[in-house]
């Protein structure tokens, strides 16, 4: 579970995030949506302690997050596929992480099978496609069998089969009680797989609702997530009906 209270992040001359209250529940797939530059990735970085907010608190699995300290217990994250050394193999990369965290090295083989990379695990990462790199990042996030999982745009680069696999994986994890928070611009996929939707804009939470409630338009009946998203954010281009 993720609990945020009175979080504020400021850069010189500008307030980047203002989140008075946000709870991301365990046992659910929550999609964090928003236009580019509206604070999605920054919020994830505050949650995992990479960025220190000016004020407020973040708790993950009941433990306070302190920026600059070790990864909060029970948190797995994949935020940037470009952070891998292309000279390493997937197996070497994951074994290095496992050693650093004091994890059983046998877990490396387990997650490689889970993300379907076991047959190419000894190939250098520089030869991997974007979709394969995403799977390596997800494998790293799952090494510690986390209770809370953060994924930033993990669907980028995945083909249709990969998206189908990801959908099933996220649902399986949530059904086991894992708190899953994922950012994406693929609204059709979010509509298909999300339990809960959080929409941010200009550093503020614009919507925080179960998917079924967000799609229930009291005036016109059920609506698509795209329509709800455009209505909440006001992001439809001029002249295009919402």
Distinctive features:
disordered C terminus; four-stranded antiparallel beta sheet; globular; about 30% helix; alpha/beta; about 240 residues; about 25% strand
Question: What's the quick description here?
Answer:
This protein is of the alpha/beta class and 242 residues long.
Q: How does this structure look, described?
A:
The protein is of the alpha/beta class. It has a domain at 84-145. The protein has 8 helices and 12 strands. The chain has helices at residues 40-47, 90-100, 106-114, 130-142, 160-175, 187-193, 211-215, 225-233, and strands spanning 2-11, 14-24, 28-33, 55-60, 63-64, 75-78, 148-152, 179-183, 196-201, 204-210, 216-217, 221-222. The strands form 3 sheets. The chain has a 6-stranded mixed sheet, sandwiched between helices. The protein has a 4-stranded antiparallel sheet with strand order 2-1-4-5, covered by helices on one side. α5 (160-175) links the parallel β7 and β8. α3 (106-114) packs across α4 (130-142). The longest helix has 16 residues, at 160-175.
